[in-house]
Amino acid sequence: MGTLVNGLDHAYKAILEAAEKLQEVQLVLSVGLSINPDDLRPTPPDAIIVRTAPQLQLLKRAALCITHAGLNTTLEALAQGVPMVAVPIGYDQPGVAARIEYHRVGRSLEIAALTGENMLEAIREVLKNWSYRARARYFQKVIKRTRGLEVAADRIEEAFKTGTIFPPI
């Protein structure tokens, strides 16, 4: 649920409650430094709960990404063709979550109304409806073809080197 805005134990508990009913998936839950993983017990027997995890490596094998709808995680999931369930918390996340829904690459749930039941429903819908993965894979191809992440990184590096935000015209 992000590195800047996390520590919402009720969100993690809703995810764990949903995972308890999903026998066919393995949950890897990264909770950051604000929460002690032991405070989330009881947990599903096969769930892996850690403070940090190698996100890119996990996304390469993931069927679904549960995210706070941060732009970095969203783009990384799409770059791997992985659909999402978004739970925006603040900043630009509600807008990113709205785009996840609009482009049909996942579902979005309100943090204030988040329960294990509606998390389970959203996870099942995204996993069972092939169109979410198909749309995520479409964006994976677009990102690869346009080199969007590379171009963005190049622009940021250039801005740091030159001290300007925009390249010269």
Structure description:
The protein has helices at 9-20, 55-59, 71-79, 93-102, 116-128, 130-146, 148-162, and strands at 28-30, 48-50, 65-67, 84-86, 106-108. The chain is mainly alpha-helical. It has a single domain (9-162), classed as Rossmann fold, CATH 3.40.50.2000. The chain is globular, with a radius of gyration of 17 Å. The protein starts with 8 loop residues before the first helix and ends in a 7-residue tail after the last helix. The mean pLDDT is 91.
Question: What keywords describe this structure?
Answer:
169 residues; mainly alpha; Rossmann fold; 3-stranded parallel β-sheet; two-stranded parallel sheet; 7 helices; transferase; UDP_glucos_trans; UDP-glycosyltransferase; glycosyltransferase
Structural class: mainly alpha
Name the CATH superfamily assignment.
Glycogen Phosphorylase B
> Main sheet: which strands, in order across?
3-4-5
Oligomer: single chain
- Name the CATH architecture: 3-Layer(aba) Sandwich
Poorly predicted ranges (pLDDT <50, ≥5 residues)?
none
The total domain count is 1
Q: Give the distance, in angstroms, between the N- and C-terminal Cα atoms.
A: 39 Å
Number of helices: 7
Question: Helices, strands, pairings?
Answer:
Layout lengths: L8 H12 L7 E3 L17 E3 L4 H5 L5 E3 L3 H9 L4 E3 L6 H10 L3 E3 L7 H13 L1 H17 L1 H15 L7
Parallel strand pairs: 1-2, 3-4, 4-5
Helix pairs in contact: 1-5
Please sum up the structure shown.
It contains 7 helices and 5 strands, in the order αββαβαβαβααα. The chain is mainly alpha-helical and 169 residues long.
